[in-house]
């Protein structure tokens, strides 16, 4: 098993265990920087991301915002499938734009005008979800836009995480199906994939028990804002340097 993939996976699993996203959002650029191609990266990360998300959904399924989830199915998923099919072998870099947007969202609690602007933007939720689907299909970074959308809605930490988790898991399922239909096969041995999955589940359970349960709603909101800002900065840095 590649040690670099294992290290990246442990780090991103902790993040996904807290926020519902992370394995794809951070794991994708990390593995690309380590020299793995886009399709291989997806084939390694997608099953693990689905598994962690489904553990979160099973625990808090009664908190899911189903209105948002239905709209994601209608407006985001078709765009994800179509654009992943189109650009499987093409590199597109829009990290700078997404990074700036995440920082913009993270600052909403400090600047009332930003919060007003976001509310105005999210009134056009269907258009936002279509754009999110296009971005995720092309770059695998749509999770950043998903977290921004759910964070802006001001839910409790359980609603926030499980709604993101079920949407993100659905993203990943349709991405895997698309890769299967176009005939892509992962180069990683099955036993390595299973071992990575087992390690990720252990990391999730540890994070859930000793970190997530200790964070109240107010701290979670603050931590989530920091997560968005940090994600934005990383995407900007990556975009400018690569």
TrEMBL record:
Cellular component terms per the entry's GO annotation: plasma membrane
Q: Report the InterPro entries cross-referenced here.
A: TM_pro_TauE-like
Membrane-topology annotation of the record: Multi-pass membrane protein
Keyword annotations: Cell membrane, Membrane, Transmembrane, Transmembrane helix
Q: Where are the transmembrane segments?
A: 7-32, 38-56, 68-88, 127-150, 162-182, 194-214, 220-237
Subcellular location per UniProt equals: Cell membrane; Membrane
At the top level, the lineage of the source is Bacteria
The text of the family note is: Belongs to the 4-toluene sulfonate uptake permease (TSUP) (TC 2.A.102) family.
Q: What is this protein called?
A: Probable membrane transporter protein
